[in-house]
Every structure is written in C-alpha cells, then in structure tokens.
Design brief:
With 478 residues, the chain is mainly α. Helix content is 43%, strand content 10%. It has helices spanning 19-33, 55-65, 89-102, 112-115, 132-137, 185-195, 211-221, 255-260, 265-273, 288-294, 309-322, 325-337, 347-355, 364-368, 391-406, 413-427, 431-443, 452-459, 461-477, and strands at 6-9, 38-41, 105-108, 143-146, 153-158, 162-167, 175-177, 200-204, 227-231, 234-237, 243-245, 305-306. A 3-stranded antiparallel sheet has the order 3-4-7. Strands 11-10-12 form a 3-stranded mixed sheet, with no helix packed on it. Strands 1-2 form a two-stranded parallel sheet. β5 and β6 (162-167) form a beta hairpin. α6 crosses α7, α15 (391-406) packs antiparallel against α19 (461-477) and α17 (431-443) packs parallel to α18 (452-459). The longest helix is centred in the C-terminal third of the chain and has 17 residues, at 461-477.
Length: 478
C-alpha cells in the first residue's frame, strides 16, 4: 500500500449535498492535507435509477465554494482514472468473475425480488449450484454474490471506535454485480479504493456493520486493508426535545438550502467542522488553511453531534462581521434591492447598519422594507416600559423633533446626534425615552437595523418629517 496518505470523497449524484456528506468530504480533505496527502473526488454513479441530471455539477460547485479542491477527479483527471464509476464497468466485471473462479463468489439466478435483497444471515440457494455455466449460456439473468464464511468472526480496528467484530454467520451473501451489469456500492468501493491506492476510508458510523463485508473482499483478493475512520451521526432536535438523525423535518439539511437561507459557505464549513471534532484550543473561527494545520484524527469524537441552528447563526454572524464593507455590500445588495427601490435611499449606509446586526442574509428584506414603504402600525407601539415611553411623552418628543429637524441645514449623523442631545436636555428625559418614539414613527416597527439617528440620516429630511407628522396625527387622535 502507498505510504502517501490518500483519501477519497465518493458521492452519488442523486440530489443535493447533504450536510453529512459535506462533513465527510471536509474530514477526508483535512485527513489528507494535514498529512501532506492527496484528496480524490470519485463519482459513484452506478445506481442508474436514482441519478439526477445536474447533481454532479452540484457536487463540483459545492466543493469549490468551500475551497475543498480535489487533487484528482473526473474533471481534473489523474493517474488512477477513470474517476466516474459508470466508466469503470468492465473493471468490476473482471474482478467479480475472478472471485467466482476462486470460489469466493457465485452466480445467482433467482428472481429479482429474491436476488436483490436477503435476510441477514440467509445463504442463497444458488450458492452451491452445479449448472451455472449452462444457465449463463442460456442467457438467464443473474447477479454475482459474494460467498461469505459460514462460521468464525471478522474483526477490524477503527481509528475512532476501536475494535469491532461481527459473526460471519450474520453476514448475507452480498451482491457484487447487479442484473444490469453494474456493481453494487460496496463492491465498487473496494475495487476503486484498491486501484486508486486509498489509504484511509472515511464514512459515517452507520457503515460500521458493513465494514466486515469490505474486509472479506480485501482478503478474498489478497489485498492490503485500508485504515477505517467512522464518523459519529449528526442529529437534529425534535419538537418534543428528543433528538434523531438529521433529516428534512429538522429544517434545511442540504448545503444548497442553507446557502439559499443566507448562510455563508465558509461559515457553514467552519460550523460542520465541529460536528464530530474539536481542536485542542478554545478557538472556534478557523479558515480552511487553519483547519489543515490543527486537524488530527485523534480529536474525532464517537458521540453523535447535534445540529444547532442557533450556533450556526453565531458562526454566520461572525463571518459577516469579518467581511470588508465592500464585500458585505456585494453580498447584501440583492437582498436590499428586492425591497428598496427608491434611488434616493443610501444603500451603502443601510448595508453598513446591517453588517453589525444580522446573523444571516435572509433577514435583510423583512427588517429594512420600511425604508421603502412605512408599514401600517398600531399606536400601542409608542408605549414601551423598558424605555419608559408612553403616549404623552411620545407626543412631546415627536413635536420637538419635528420642529428641530426643520432647522437642520446640514443633514448629517453628527448634527442629528447633537439635535437629540439638546432635546434630551431640554425636557430632562432619558435618551431611550426620546429615541423610542422617533424610531417607531420612522419605521413602524420595534426591531430595526440601527437607531433613530441612523434611520433619520438615511431617510432624509423630507421623508423623516412626513413620517413624524403621520405619527403625531395618530397620537393626537388617541
């Protein structure tokens, strides 16, 4: 076996990139790169019935967006191709027939319902037939099955879970080649991993029980067995407080869904790095290059991880804050422009307010739409216990504010700030009591990206005056 560490990510192009699949790709990449090894992308497209047209492109674009660049792939090529399993069909047939010749596999001619699935431990009736060649010549449909040992144990060492052993009598005679001539997932994996010199096989812990089947194939061929690294499950929180394997009922579970909800690719990747691994330090924000330098297999966990959207929100908000003003504006612009059409509105100023206050980009439209159109709002919003604001104080503040802004000649944040300092001193009220009714009058909502002064500055003198007059009419009617 090669002494150079080589890992492979081998997704099936049957849909979008699930978070669990992306985590596997990340760990495989980090295992290889932390040891100056190679990361290979192999496309497992032998399940022809489940293929989705553009799913392979989704795999490429997802890996590119999170900087998990493969050293070898169907697009890049390499010394161990082809890297698409559908292009390796003849290779699998050759190996399967060699196992039949060795007495390690056999032709099974049972009907599909019987040949495609088997109760654990059941041995197929075709296992010891003597007329296989005659049936082959007659053109009868068949699959090729592996002939499992009838007694003893298969034992292997996993780098995360330690020693694992399974009774051979519990193992079914698994299918190697299906009736359509394509290999099964398990068989193709073993052949490809051997031919591509894969040294470390990384996958979910749900595959622990099937690993003995892999090992028996390696032994049947007389090949070296790779190192195994099984990863803990990713769980989701249920409504009743319990947890179960992450699925669509827990919310967005694919990378594409999370990106469409306004999460940044680098934040998603950073978060999922912690779903089964932890660094030696308390550091949480890592670039991909930093992860390569600190990652180690020894820090992987056996325990399931819980996907926590609040924690992902925190990661995303931190990454948003790390962007330059220009970078964030480019990210936020489509979300801002879908609700703010007024060309006189200062969009860069809105972007500046948003960057410090949001956890994901999808929040933007709902919290800034008031800049375009003042929504209908209830007069009760002017009452707020925390800021000690009520109808009477709000009416007084808004009258003074309207009068004061009419005299402002230079509309700037600094001048508006001074204006409210003067109002606060004049009526001897807390600043929060003064600012609350102004913010409600300008936005019609209790949560805004920025306070009253920032909103005044962006709306401008004319629009701000119009909205304050409307608020005064509401209060006077009350």
């Amino acid at each position: 076996m090669s002494f150079r560490v080589r890992t492979r990510f081998a997704p099936s192009p049957t849909g979008y990139m699930h978070i669990g699949n992306l985590r596997t790709a990340l760990y495989e990449y980090l295992i290889a790169k932390s040891q100056n090894g190679d990361f290979i992308l192999r496309i497992e497209d032998t399940d022809r019935e489940r293929l989705v047209g553009d799913a392979e492109e989704v795999i490429y674009s997802t890996l590119k967006s999170v900087d998990l660049e493969a050293d070898e792939s169907p697009k890049i090529g390499g010394n161990y191709g082809p890297y698409r399993q559908s292009e390796r069909k003849d290779i699998y047939i050759k190996y399967a027939k060699s196992l039949v010749e060795k007495g390690k596999a056999y032709y099974c001619f049972c009907e599909k319902s019987e040949s495609e699935s088997m109760v654990s431990g059941h041995k197929d009736k075709c296992r010891d037939i003597t007329n296989a060649q005659e049936l082959l010549k007659s053109g009868k449909s068949y699959v090729i099955r592996q002939k499992m040992p009838l007694d003893g144990k298969t034992v292997f060492e996993d780098m995360v879970y330690g020693k694992v052993e399974v009774e051979n009598k519990e193992l079914e005679d698994q299918i190697l080649i299906k009736s359509d001539g394509y290999p099964t997932y398990n068989f193709a994996n073993v052949i490809d991993d051997h031919e591509m010199n894969i040294t470390h096989v990384v996958r979910g812990s749900e595959y622990l029980s099937s690993t003995p089947k892999y090992n028996l194939l390696y032994e049947a061929f007389g090949w070296d067995i790779p190192k195994y690294i099984h990863l803990p499950l990713i769980m989701g929180k249920n409504e009743d407080g319990s947890v179960s394997k992450l699925s669509k009922r827990h919310g967005a579970v694919s990378f594409e869904d999370l990106v469409s909800q306004g999460y940044l690719p680098e934040a998603i990747l950073n978060y999922i790095a912690f779903l089964g691994w932890c660094p030696e330090s308390n550091q949480e924000i890592f670039s991909i290059n930093e992860l390569k330098s600190v990652f180690s297999i020894e820090r992987l966990s056996k325990s399931p991880s819980i996907f926590d959207y609040k924690k992902l929100d925190w990661f995303n908000s931190e990454y948003i804050k790390l962007k330059s003003s220009e970078e964030f504006l480019n990210l936020a612009l489509p979300y801002i422009k879908c609700v703010v059409k007024n060309e006189n509105i200062d969009i860069p100023k809105i972007s500046e307010l948003l960057q410090k206050r949001i956890s994901h980009l999808n929040e933007i439209p709902s919290i800034i739409s008031f800049f375009e159109i003042l929504p209908e709002y209830e007069i009760e919003l002017f009452e707020n216990k925390k800021s000690k604001s009520n109808f009477e104080s709000s009416h007084l503040v808004l009258k003074l504010t309207l009068r004061a802004i009419s005299d402002v000649s230079s509309w700037s944040y600094e001048n508006l700030h001074d204006l409210f300092d003067n109002i606060t001193s004049e009526i001897n009220m807390k600043k929060s009591t003064v600012m609350w009714p102004v913010r409600i009058a300008l936005s019609g909502q209790t949560i805004t990206p920025g306070g009253a002064i920032e909103i005044l500055e962006i709306l401008g003198k004319e629009e701000s005056s119009r909205r304050i007059k409307l608020a005064l009419e509401k209060l006077e009617t009350k």
